[in-house]
UniProtKB/TrEMBL annotation:
Example GO molecular function: zinc ion binding
Name of this chain's protein: NADPH:quinone reductase
InterPro entries: ADH-like_N, ER, GroES-like_sf, NAD(P)-bd_dom_sf, Quin_OxRdtase/zeta-crystal_CS, YIM1/Zinc_Alcohol_DH_Fams
Pfam families assigned to the protein according to its UniProt record, in alphabetical order: ADH_N, ADH_zinc_N_2
Keywords annotated in UniProt: Oxidoreductase
Signal peptide: none
Domain Enoyl reductase (ER): 11-300
Lineage, top ranks: Bacteria, Bacillati, Actinomycetota, Actinomycetes, Pseudonocardiales
Length: 302
């Protein structure tokens, strides 16, 4: 037997249970990963809380939980292209927070470079690819001044640093208490909420914007005269207002995640991990992530 976090009804963190489940095994072209860390994302609890969101992703009850994972290959089927002992990270929808996940080698599975812990590797897939996709959607280039909405969150920490590495100046929205965190990350902070366009204008001219929270930042950028093709959101559904681009992790360029992992391994990009919980405390981990005021990533260990 092995353990997995599962839920049998929709609801809040209280519906999540750590259960003994049969051990899965790798078939041809598959690997079994002994998961040691799982990074959390809003979609994880979003699927648990909202049946309509679960249906959109093809999730049915009872379901496993989580998407991002990292660990070590401990079974490799024929033709999988990985060997027992390889360190990997990747994504497995509704299955990641478990002692073992079985994934096809062609699915979202990446080698973990030396120099990155599993805890950090488990934060990369969703947030890293979403940040890269958002910056690519607006054609970010050196010399830009980009406004990042929700800059201190799981996606924001990657977006801010990737934009800086690309040679942009970064303004980031946050609550005032978060300003020191954002400055340390390399962004000039600006408070979200009513009056945002005026506060941004006082800081200077922006040339692009990515909204990682909803539409407030996108709308502020439109008001400040940024062309809609230089504004993107990952958090407003498929048709955001004003011709703004909708994007998400699935749109990331192939190779984007490997570049991010390499930048982390080389010390050019750091991943603030706000909290690490043992899997027995999955409900606390999810409640913290769902507070929407986390700075960086929340990780569960197994
Ligand atoms: N489409 C995709 O592929 C995709 C992929 C990943 C994420 N997403 C979506 O993108 C969003 C961000 O994900 P995430 O992982 O970064 O979330 P997160 O880690 O939960 O974001 C937390 C951050 O949001 C900030 N925040 C709270 N209220 C805010 C407000 N009113 N305006 C602006 N920022 C606010 C907080 O800053 P303070 O603490 O300073 O308040 C905190 O740092 C979520 O809605 C998620 O579902 C979409």
């Amino acid at each position: 037997m092995s353990r997995a976090v599962v839920y049998e009804k929709f609801g809040g963190p209280e519906v999540l249970e750590l259960r003994d489940v049969p051990e899965p095994h790798a078939g041809p072209g598959e690997v079994r990963v002994r998961v040691t860390a799982a990074g959390l994302n809003p979609m994880d609890w979003g699927l648990v809380a909202r049946p309509e969101a679960a249906a959109r992703f093809g999730v049915t009850l009872p379901s496993g939980f989580g998407y991002d994972f990292a660990g070590v290959v401990d079974e490799a089927g024929p033709g999988a292209g990985y060997a027992v002992g390889d360190r990997v990270h990747g994504g497995a929808l509704g299955r990641a927070v478990a002692d073992f996940v079985v994934v096809r080698a062609g699915d979202a599975l990446f080698r973990t470079p030396d120099g990155i812990s599993d805890e950090v590797a488990s934060t990369l897939p969703v947030a890293g690819s979403s940040a890269a996709a958002a910056l690519a959607a607006v054609g970010l280039r050196a010399g830009d001044t980009v406004l990042v909405g929700g800059a201190a969150g799981g996606v924001g920490i990657f977006a801010v640093q990737l934009a800086k590495l690309a040679g942009a100046t970064v303004l980031g929205t946050a609550a005032e208490g978060t300003f020191p965190f954002l400055r340390e990350l390399g962004a000039e902070p600006v408070a979200y909420g009513p009056g945002l366009p005026d506060r941004v204008r006082e800081l200077g001219e922006i040339t692009a914007a990515i909204d990682l929270f909803g539409t407030e930042t996108a709308e502020a950028a439109l008001k400040l005269g940024v062309p809609p093709e230089r504004i993107a959101t990952i958090a407003a559904g498929p048709t955001p207002p004003g011709g703004v681009r909708a994007t998400g992790g699935a749109d990331a360029e192939p190779g984007a995640l490997t570049q991010i992992a390499d930048a982390v391994a080389a010390g050019r990009l750091r991943v603030p991990v706000a909290a690490v919980f043992p899997v027995e405390r999955i409900r606390d981990a999810v409640a913290l992530q769902a507070s929407r005021h986390v700075h960086g990533k929340v990780v569960v260990t197994l």
